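Narrative summary of target 7.
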Amino acid sequence: MWIVLIVIIYFVAIFGVSRLFIPHLGLKLEKIPDDIPADMSEEIEKLKSESGSAAEFLEKSWELIGGRYRSERFNTLFKFRYLFKDLKEIWNMRGYIPCTQSSFLLRIFLVKSGFFKEAEVALRHTFVNFCIHQYLRVKINDQWMDVDVGEKQRGMKLGKHLKWFG
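Modeled conformation, tokenized:
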């Protein structure tokens, strides 16, 4: 009986309460900021000029952000404070950042490029290793594609996302 209660409380905390205070994990999608770091804006413009289509821009952005950052499921617990770093600080980092932060960066790139509307970039969540994991679904050519940018460095392909099993 106690184990069932503990499991229920854990799931409520992870999938409910955490969304109230962890940035970019909310129950509703937050707006893309008007002001972003100048070098981030320059990078978006560079990729935009190199891309002939929304699909090409998505792939180039996924390569850039996924090559610069990586998610690590257990580091999210050990480096909990990273969840609360602001955009400029995260943009200037390399290596580990939480999946919520890498998804937020990719959302900014996609929407600021003009190739995508905010409604065409949706947050999705899954449960992996007792933690909530975030990835994006991006509407491209009238179809939705899974994009898990934080898992790219571990071999996740564009169009796939991390799953509990498989």
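The chain has a mean pLDDT of 88.
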